[in-house]
Specification:
12 strands; about 475 residues; seven-stranded mixed sheet; alpha/beta; Rossmann fold; binds nicotinamide-adenine-dinucleotide
Length: about 475
């Protein structure tokens, strides 16, 4: 029987690998590595049938080198202290890697979401929030939760409402939680941000012909194939954006099973079918596998890009040798164990690591937090000014050339950016810069992208400690 290694241990193995390239005092590195705070919370909740159930949850704050700390919370039956601690550490490194000025945190409530009614879930989340308030583990300048597995806008709205209801007079209170519906202070583009960030990251990686050549691939997305594990928030949006740019979805792995079809699968159809309670296995495909452990065999299907976007520790030494994808795009957090990673590196598979590739969510959450602190919608001040400037430029060109543009040109060019345009532009900028920073380090140190991402992150966290005078 194989046992899955402890998740935090895995993250620390990656950390140690990067340390071999660094020259910081041991004590500083040890401080960065530790998880500073972990709260285990248990609280009673009354179920609809009158019974009382004790619910367990956690909030881990890995590093306060920058405040607030930031990280989503998840609803899963497999949540554990090890899991939230590892995920909080990854958040620290992720934020540092893409220059988001937050420390890392993560939360979880250990429940099987489908077993509870909506009313019960609301009570659980409101009570969890209350417990976080009691322990000073939530607040716009302290700790800012956001969505993760099993958590969407509805759950975030309950959390935000509970926090705001108990913090009258705090004009920054909306910044205590991100991923809110736009009507509650959210920012446009947050729901799809992680998937869109995955798309920008993969697009950048495959645009470099020199890096594609050793994989036997041509540059560009068009014509590439992908297999996606997990058709949730991250997997669905990433598949949708990659698909719109020419990548063919050939396989999907979900809880109930996996399907493969080299002719291509329709992501919208699959997503809708599952949203209506259907199973992937109801649909026609050239190959189908039942769920559970067997379903994970889908990770070995032939494709150019494998996108794990469900859960951690799915690429292990047992299956890494059989994986046929040439690029692994880590949408999920921690999908590859350190031993699995070594095998893939030896085999020349290009791994786009989670701490870079799925940073789109926290990037746009950062924009939401700024919006909440400033109380100003992005684009409100400049949109019409920009539109008028562009209009004047077009008219000046008309006057100079004597030619007239048709109305469509004005409609396309004489516009100003709105909130969604600016959010997506900031996200694209972040992912492109992040990719090149990571790639430059990998090339100059002759190492892989994951180690390079850890090197970049550790350097920045170390600098933050040194700037604060904590370490020489
Ligand atoms: P989600 O709950 O929206 O989707 C997860 C999907 O995975 C679901 O469709 C679920 O049915 C599927 N799944 C669960 N167990 C599975 C299994 N054994 N095999 C195949 N599929 C399975 O969650 P999400 O928000 O999309 O998060 C997915 C991953 O991305 C997690 O690792 C999360 O930490 C990470 N992530 C999420 C965000 C975000 O903004 N939501 C940001 C960064 C990273």
């Amino acid at each position: 029987m194989t046992t899955t290694p402890r998740f935090f241990e895995q993250v620390n193995r990656y950390f140690d690998r990067a340390n071999a390239f660094l020259d910081h005092p041991d004590g500083l590195l040890e401080q960065i590595k530790q998880c500073n705070v972990v709260y285990h919370i248990s609280f009673p909740v009354r179920l609809d049938d009158g019974q009382i159930e004790v619910i367990h949850g956690w909030r881990a704050q890995h590093s306060q080198h920058r405040l607030p700390v930031k990280g989503g919370f998840r609803l899963t039956h497999h949540a554990s202290e090890d899991e939230v601690t590892a995920l909080a550490a990854l958040m620290t490194y992720k934020c540092a890697m893409v220059d988001i000025p937050f420390g890392g945190a993560k939360g979880a409530i250990k429940i099987e979401k489908d077993r509870y009614s909506d009313r019960e879930l609301e009570r659980i989340i409101r009570r969890y929030t209350y417990e976080l308030i009691q322990k000073n583990c939530i607040g716009p300048g302290l700790d800012v939760p956001g969505p993760d597995m099993g958590v969407g806008e509805r759950e975030i709205a309950w959390m935000a409402d509970t926090y705001m209801g108990l913090s009258q007079g705090d004009h920054a209170a909306a910044g205590a939680v991100t991923g809110k519906p736009v009507s509650q202070g959210g920012v446009r583009g947050r729901v799809e941000a992680t998937g869109r960030g995955v798309y920008f990251g993969v697009r950048e990686a495959v645009s470099i012909a020199e890096d594609m050549e050793p994989l036997g691939l041509s540059a560009g997305l068009d014509g590439k194939t992908m297999v996606v594990q997990g058709l949730g928030n991250v997997g669905y949006h990433a598949a949708k954006f990659l698909g719109a740019d020419g990548v063919k979805l050939v396989g999907v792995i979900e809880r109930e099973g996996a399907i493969y079809d080299p002719a291509g699968l329709d992501v919208e159809l699959l997503f809708q079918h599952r949203a209506e309670g259907g199973s992937l296995l109801d649909l026609d495909a050239s190959e189908s596998i039942e769920g559970g452990r067997e379903g994970a065999r889908g990770l070995e299907w032939e494709c150019d890009i494998l996108l794990p976007a469900a859960l951690e520790s799915v690429i292990l030494p047992e299956n890494a040798p059989q994986i046929r994808a040439k690029i692994i795009a880590e949408g999920a957090n921690g999908p590859t164990t350190a031993d699995g990673d070594e095998i893939l590196n030896q085999r020349g598979v290009l791994q786009l690591p989670d701490m870079f590739l799925n940073a789109g969510g926290v990037t746009v959450s950062y924009f939401e937090w700024i919006k909440n602190l400033t109380h100003l919608r992005f684009g409100r001040m400049e949109r019409r000014f920009e539109a008028a400037s562009n209009d004047r430029i077009l008219r000046a060109v008309e006057d100079l050339t004597g030619k007239r543009f048709n109305g469509q040109v004005f409609e396309k060019i004489a516009v100003g950016a709105d909130e969604e345009d600016l959010v997506n532009s900031g996200l694209e900028e972040t992912m492109i810069n992040g990719y090149h920073e990571m790639r430059d380090i990998a090339r100059s140190r002759d190492t892989d992208l994951r180690t390079a991402a850890f090197i970049a992150a550790i350097q920045k966290v170390a600098l933050a400690y040194q700037e604060r005078g904590i370490f020489p």
